[in-house]
Amino acid sequence: MKNRLKVLRAEHDWTQARLASELQVSRQTVNAIETGKYDPSLPLAFAIARTFGQRIEDIFEPEEQM
Amino acid sequence: MPYILLVSRLLYYMIRMFDMTGGTRKSLSAWLCGDTTPRDRRNMRRLLWLMFAWAVSFAGGAQLVRRDMIPTGAFAWIAAAIPMVMAVFVLIAFGRFLRETDELNRRIQLQALALGFGGGWFAMAGYRVFELLGAPAIDMGGVVLVMTLLYAIGGVVGRIRYR
Question: Smallest Cβ distance to A44: which of B33, B103, B159?
């Protein structure tokens, strides 16, 4: 799943640690989501969307199917 | 028995390092559970203390019984039962740690547990064939050590994979 987390974080001028603190997860989790190594659970995706005041589908989008 | 003494000593040093201030605490907790949240560090510290208490009660109880330092009967049974009770507290603390840890760490821990249990089980089952060929027999302590090592390897692999 692709996401705009890094872009949104940069717009807010937040570090990964700051975002992790907002979401109450580890910095490693934020980094893994940003790099596409890990897809967040639905509750965490909602928390991310709420933190940035956006809808989930505005932040996350599925990879294009072959 | 040497395995348990080794594990107790390792646990003791880990707790000591957790309780140190400054960079050591950060690096050790990061090594154990990634860049942790304060809740994870608290739960991990509780778990390590309980594991240390279990190891001490197990090693102590076994020594007391083995060396006939306590009278047989009720006291010996109590000494044997205390580690079992401690183990229940350890399992409760580990369950709490898994429930409350952040979701990526939970995934890493579960994958490590799967490798530790599954890999350990298959390794020991496979080793029985080598024993038939004359390889030295491995006792329960060896099984625990293999499972622990595989669990640790699984944790490190998970940390690297999601780094």
Answer: B103
Helix (H, G, I), strand (E, B) or coil at A14: coil
**Encoded tokens for B12:** 């003791």
Burial of B85 (0-12, 13-18, 19+ CB in 10 A): exposed
Residues in chain B within 8 Å Cβ distance of A24: 37, 39, 102
Which chain B residues contact residue A20 at CB under 8 A? Answer: 35, 37
For the stretch B98-125, pLDDT in tens is: 999 989 999 999 999 999 999 989 988 8
Note the pTM of the prediction, 2 decimals.
0.76
- Cβ B162–A20 below 8 Å, yes or no? no
Query: What ipTM describes this predicted complex?
Result: 0.87
CB B155 within 8 A of CB A21: no
- Write down the number of H helices and E strands in chain A: 5, 2
Tens-place pLDDT, residues B7-44: 666 666 666 555 544 444 555 555 555 567 888 889 98
Q: Flag if A26 and B34 touch (Cβ within 8 Å).
A: yes
